[in-house]
Amino acid sequence: MNSETKHINSAFDQDLDRLLTLLMAMGGQVENAISKSIQALQMSDLELAEQVIADDQRIDALQEEIHTAAVNCIAIRQPQASDLRMVIAVMRISDSLERSGDHAKNTAKRMPIITQHPHRQDKVASLCRFAKTTQTLLKNALDAFIQTDEGKARQVIAQDFDIDQMHGSLFREFVTYMLEDPTIVTPILHLLFVAKNVERIGDHATGIAEQCVYLITGRIPDDERQRHEDYAYLRDSIAG
Amino acid sequence: MNSETKHINSAFDQDLDRLLTLLMAMGGQVENAISKSIQALQMSDLELAEQVIADDQRIDALQEEIHTAAVNCIAIRQPQASDLRMVIAVMRISDSLERSGDHAKNTAKRMPIITQHPHRQDKVASLCRFAKTTQTLLKNALDAFIQTDEGKARQVIAQDFDIDQMHGSLFREFVTYMLEDPTIVTPILHLLFVAKNVERIGDHATGIAEQCVYLITGRIPDDERQRHEDYAYLRDSIAG
After folding, report:
1. pLDDT in tens, B192-231
2. Which residue of A lies nearest to B75 if distances are taken between CA atoms?
3. Closest by CA position to B52, among listed B102, B86, B13, B125
4. Which residues from A are below 8 Å from B175, CB to CB?
5. Is A179 an interface residue toward B (CB < 8 Å)?
6. Number of Cβ atoms within 10 Å of the Cβ of B76
7. What is the pTM of this model?
8. Cα A123 to chain center, whole Å?
């Protein structure tokens, strides 16, 4: 939070500062998990993939810590109105981060199958670009929330449509690989599920940005999303 | 909640009753969405699929209503300890239900592509059985929560492993269809993503059951889940 916007030195503010610090730490670990899972895919690095899987426990532990601290803060400080909404938003965002971490872990778990396919390197390039875009989106969404920056949050929401389009293109690309060479159906299928994991991380980024706009304006900006989704359904139902 | 366990007639109890009534209504609508999406798949009924997509807005509206009521209840009644945890659990369960509804909607959105495939009827039988099992699991998880029934919640958690196994079998079945006939790759891919949606609904059911055990015992029963997951990874990493 901007230092201008908070009432200095109250016990509630100290609790909130601790919650935001924990949330930023959790966000950093989730970004790290996404980044490592992409690198593992690019480099066929099974050891790095194992590390992503093992590290997920730390992310889960941080989520538990945030939930416990948030519930204690609500019980002891009895915050009202926007302070209460803020603490609840931190809990919900930690849920989104935990799920994003799970998607990175799921990507890492698919690595032993994907690496069995000898000519995958050229096939994962677009997927890695897609994953990096989404990773940046999640980082921006979290920054928007921490900095109470409505403009930045709306930029994240606006990119939801690009994420859907990139996912649609990847889906088509992978289907053509399968049709060209049925012997690689299984690894390509796993790459399709990795793309789905990445798309879901993008959804979580949008959700966090929406929480941020809601906290600032009191309204969830769902109109734009709904429109994109309907449009995507008519134009591009193949990509799901 | 059992009538024995609550302090009768307090303003908090009235709020909680209203929250639980809303949660049950939401659960009913989500079960309905899952049930209709399966029926649409079985019967190739595009109209029913459209209805599932349209009805999702009502589920989203109920989630918003629950969140608003929960935040107001916390702000006005300032519940402590187990009462506070209960209200927060209702919010988190409504999030899980909303996501389960989204998975049913996503299944419905894939129908126009899936119905283009003429010989799909025999291919969706196992998928429909899988979906019905998962739908029952979600219903049982919600019942366990409403009835504060730890035994029922643990039964749901124990079935998480079966859900993973059923999903693994479906994955293999669908891959063989693709290998036998590459012309049906696209519709089968969508059936694979439907299976993934169903599996995720199962994950939400498990999550709700875990919330329930946590409320009753004060501990999240994550040990069993972790063990199953690790085992699944070694034995069956293909199914993701």
Report:
1. 999 999 999 999 999 999 999 989 987 767 654 443 443 3
2. A80
3. B102
4. 185-186, 189
5. yes
6. 12
7. 0.86
8. 23
